[in-house]
């Protein structure tokens, strides 16, 4: 497939509006939100909700159309539906547009960006394996009414990267035909927002059969207001402090039978499409994490570049590297690394829009961007000297915000394993 590197006109128009928000709303509030952890960026949320509603509506309609084509036998799964003349139409650019928006919003403030009211990871999971009826029931709410949030709850105290060790259970009560969930989830991004706001929801991963391992794991939609779902703790964090990260306890929480996403049957091997399908959630969301990392890196790089230029240290692209000062060489390397990560991220999003496999590139983008944002922000603090280490500038904050991008949605180490398995053809058992 070919990738167009020019930003599409429709996306550029969106970016113009979002750039105003990033520059004039997010960036000026960045330090305040960092120092007042968990204080919601109300102005930003209210400004973004009209736009996110439109994005959620477009995503929902596209997903419903895809399911309709599949049920009618008209879809071939690659995102190119045939028009009336039998010719393939061009794939959409929804994911490409989203990574541009995420990158720019994270340039404004990564913590505030994570507070955007939207279905987020919950929506990605529902889209991955939900039925048309479930998409309507759970995702239509994000296209109307007041701001609301979705979240994903997978990590547990003993199950981080090792998802097969999840202990949260889901037991079917034959008398009421309800699922009873018991367990504890930690590090749930926007978990508090999702469960405390009306119409919010969290996709909770639980096992219906511990003996079956991953095959026994199923995603369940837990809606705000469900009895016996408790927010036990909201973390105080190193970075992205505007965003809430919650611990959730499920104590005999009852949810409707229809809130199970995918097949309730435990199927192993090739028949385990529910777990594998839901895992594709991360193929779609890891490019978003990469884009967020790149936004933070770009913020740090641009500020450092511009500050040094005011003091006579300017980037010189025409000179060979050996004629540059060490600082100039560092700046060029920072910019080059950011662009390399961005190209991988564009590729991952473009493949997703074309409905082509993107697991390898998605994980590569996540690994690369996680490393780049960590190195670039640290180098920015270094190049700006003692001032870069103080709270007079936002550079030290960007360095703190950066590290999470190398951790969540699969750590850098885990994604490196995924890349190695994909390239070398090893299974999970053969390479751990």
Provide a compact summary of the structure:
With 432 residues, the protein is an alpha+beta fold.
Describe this structure in words.
This protein is 50% helix and 12% strand. By secondary structure, the protein is α+β, with helices and mostly antiparallel strands. It has a domain of 152 residues: Butyryl-CoA Dehydrogenase, subunit A, domain 3 (Up-down Bundle), CATH 1.20.140. Helix 10 packs antiparallel against helix 12. The protein is globular and about 75 Å long.
Tags for this entry?
alpha+beta; Butyryl-CoA Dehydrogenase, subunit A, domain 3; four-stranded antiparallel sheet; three-stranded mixed sheet; 7 strands
Give the SSE map:
Layout (H helix, E strand, L loop, with lengths): L8 H27 L6 H31 L21 H15 L1 H4 L6 H10 L2 H8 L10 E4 L15 E5 L4 E12 L1 H6 L4 E7 L9 E7 L5 E6 L10 E12 L16 H38 L15 H28 L5 H25 L1 H4 L6 H8 L9 H13 L8
Parallel strand pairs: 1-4
Antiparallel strand pairs: 2-3, 3-7, 4-5, 6-7
Number of helices: 13
The major sheet is characterized as:
4 strands, antiparallel
Compute the CA-based radius of gyration: 22 Å
Q: Structural class, please?
A: alpha+beta
CATH 2nd-level architecture of the domain at 273-424:
Up-down Bundle
Low-confidence stretches: 76-91
Shape field:
globular
Helix content: 40-55%
> How many strand elements?
7
Residue-averaged pLDDT, rounded? 90
Distance between the termini: 32 Å
